[in-house]
């Protein structure tokens, strides 16, 4: 597993041996290895100086990368591998999904789940917090579930659900539009764009010949990158910025499902680096 810090300065890597490595992007050097897990680390999520790691044994560790004794919390509620993990933007709540079909919501101040949801009937690896409604979480289930559920994490209520008719592998919210995009595996290997809260499907986009493993939105929130089992990486212009579309008076975020595919990405960033205070 891999996960960038918000400013792109550091990369966390989870290994099959159970280690979490921290790499400096500018120097392209490993600056720390945090050992301890007894099985592979399949998912990671950053919250400022904390990186949380989800393990095959069902445990979640919070690591403070600033101190030598890095393990500051262990969260145990899943009985199978943790395959979804994401912090809310304010750092108050952590959402986790597992191969045990559970969704757990954790308060940052506690090692006991705030609440657990059991409605999924397959593994939950797709989790995403809404960028414009703090207490709104979406979760997506695997091949024997195929649903996306929407949760109010204040009241713990399920607000609505979508039957996507395909394995849900990731969810990305638009920061500008009341829309979200889901990526899928069996049987269609596609992308789907949905409006919220109506949950009307805006468009289906044929994406890959095999299961979409992962998706990520660009920092400007306009371009979606997808990676599939066949080793292909594709870029999709999904959400066009309002500032760019104002002249054309477009009201929808989708840009007709147009795509640009590539196998090599490179570039530099002039964004300021945020130091993590990692010990030498």
Explain what the structure shows.
This protein is mainly β and 280 residues long. It has one helix and 24 strands. The strands form six sheets. A four-stranded antiparallel sheet has the order 1-2-3-4, with no helix packed on it. It has a four-stranded antiparallel sheet with strand order 5-6-7-8, with no helix packed on it. Strands 9-10-11-12 form a four-stranded antiparallel sheet, with no helix packed on it. The chain starts with a strand and ends in a 19-residue tail after the last strand. Mean pLDDT is 90; it is low at 255-273.
Strand order of the largest sheet: 1-2-3-4
Unreliable runs: 255-273
DSSP, total strands: 24
Broad structural category: mainly beta
The proportion of strand residues reads over 45%
Helical run tally: 1
In N-to-C order, the SSE pattern is EEEEEEEEEEEEEEEEEEEEEEEHE
- Which percent range fits the helix content? under 10%
């Amino acid at each position: 597993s891999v996960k960038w810090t918000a400013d792109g300065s550091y990369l966390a890597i989870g290994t099959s041996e159970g280690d979490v490595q921290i790499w400096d992007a500018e120097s392209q050097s490993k600056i720390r290895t945090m050992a301890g897990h007894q099985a592979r680390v399949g998912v990671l999520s950053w919250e400022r100086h904390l990186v949380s790691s989800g393990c095959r044994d069902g445990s979640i560790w919070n690591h403070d990368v600033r101190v030598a004794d890095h393990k500051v919390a262990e969260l145990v509620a899943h009985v199978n591998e943790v395959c979804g993990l994401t912090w809310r933007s304010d750092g108050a709540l952590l959402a986790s999904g597992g191969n045990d079909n559970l969704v757990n919501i954790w308060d940052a101040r506690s090692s006991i789940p705030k609440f657990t949801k059991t409605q999924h009937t397959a593994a939950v690896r797709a989790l995403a917090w809404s960028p414009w409604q703090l207490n709104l979480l979406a979760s997506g289930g695997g091949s024997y579930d195929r649903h996306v559920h929407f949760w109010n994490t204040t009241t713990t209520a399920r607000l609505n659900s979508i039957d996507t008719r395909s394995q849900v592998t990731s969810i990305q919210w638009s920061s500008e539009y009341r829309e979200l995009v889901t990526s899928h595996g069996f049987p269609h290997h596609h992308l789907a764009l949905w409006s919220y809260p109506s949950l009307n499907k805006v468009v289906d986009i044929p994406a890959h010949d095999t299961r979409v493993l992962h998706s990520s939105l660009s920092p400007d929130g306009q371009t979606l990158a997808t990676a599939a089992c066949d080793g292909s990486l594709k870029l999709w212009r999904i959400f066009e910025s309002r500032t760019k579309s104002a002249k054309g008076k477009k009201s929808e975020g989708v840009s007709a499902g147009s795509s640009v595919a590539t196998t090599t990405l490179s570039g530099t960033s002039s964004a300021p680096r945020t130091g993590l205070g990692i010990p030498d």
